[in-house]
Design a protein that fits this description.
- The chain has about 325 residues and is an alpha/beta fold.
- It contains eight helices and 17 strands.
- It has two domains: about 5-185, Rossmann fold (3-Layer(aba) Sandwich); about 205-320, Rossmann fold (3-Layer(aba) Sandwich), CATH 3.40.50.
- The protein binds flavin-adenine dinucleotide (FAD).
- The site of flavin-adenine dinucleotide has 28 residues, from helix 6, helix 7, strand 16 and helix 8.
Length: about 325
Amino acid sequence: MSLSRIWVYAQATDGKVATITLEMLAKARQLGDTIEAFYGGADADAIAAQLGAHGATKVYATGDLDGALHGVPVAAAVAAAVEAGDGPDLIMLGTTYDGRDVAGRLSVKLDQPVITNVVDVELDGDAVVGTEPIFGGSTEVKTKATAGGPAIFLVRPKSFVAEESGGGAAEVATLAVPDTGATGGARITERFVEEASGPKLDEAAIVVSGGRGLGESEKFEMVEQLAKLLKGAPGASRAIVDAGWVPYSYQVGQTGKVVKPSVYIAAGISGATQHMVGMKGSKNIIAINKDPEAPIFSVADLGIVGDVHKVMPKLIEALENR
Ligand SMILES: Cc1cc2nc3c(=O)[nH]c(=O)nc-3n(C[C@H](O)[C@H](O)[C@H](O)COP(=O)(O)OP(=O)(O)OC[C@H]3O[C@@H](n4cnc5c(N)ncnc54)[C@H](O)[C@@H]3O)c2cc1C
């Protein structure tokens, strides 16, 4: 059994399709016969080849949104297409700011529930079933969409592996945006791009994260230094984000980023379930903690029971001398 048609919300920055979009396309290919994307913006031609290479045959694009926030026009356009009888069986959106915005608005317009926080999707006959972690990732529940219209699923990044399928460029079709009135009035007037050197946290092959065990904000420098030497990205527990030592963009976990690097080094992090849900899929986990009973050791492949202030400088020195 497979679904006849699935729509994936395509997001892109500077002509590069977001990894979450490609991850959803990979999963959609396993579930449906026709995989299509929808996109807010005028530059769909620039991303049609990437979408096609990952299995989308068509991309429905709104065209220029005149600086509008995407949620209102994209949701209105998709809802209008569905109401006109041209909708899919399943709409997959990534758990991103715009993805959540579009999903919430679609839910209201189509009077359909949104299944959120989805980490897996399967079919039960012709019904779509989502898997979501609950209680900080300690257990999983399955939710079947039975409402009858297109199922709306918000998918967590890193739930699936993006893989090319070798298709040609997706055909670009028009997704007409109806008049959204005053709701569509908000405009993006300026964008700020956070300065960053090195790989992005959620795409890095090596992540070095620091926690409260570092003792003080200045000591986060050890994390940054180690990450740089390993050509990786620095990350953090929520405790030190909340304490203002590092920006929120560094946070790994349930309410931060999900990472799946080859190597994850946790320094002075206890291993609360809310942290572990964001990193336990890493291939190799190395934990440095002075408490041998720290929960992080339960998921670690290599555990170093010791003081971060002694272990990390030695690691940094060894790498510098290589
Ligand atoms: C709804 C909700 C969402 C949350 N989301 C997240 C999230 O996304 N990400 C997240 O990280 N947390 C999240 N949390 C918070 C989480 O529950 C923990 O409070 C947090 O992860 C703890 O951070 P920590 O491990 O740095 O600090 P602590 O738990 O205080 O642990 C510090 C560790 O450092 C060790 N240590 C101390 N000194 C040293 C030393 N000198 N050398 C070596 N080790 C040392 C200690 O033994 C201890 O294990 C969330 C909580 C809630 C309620």
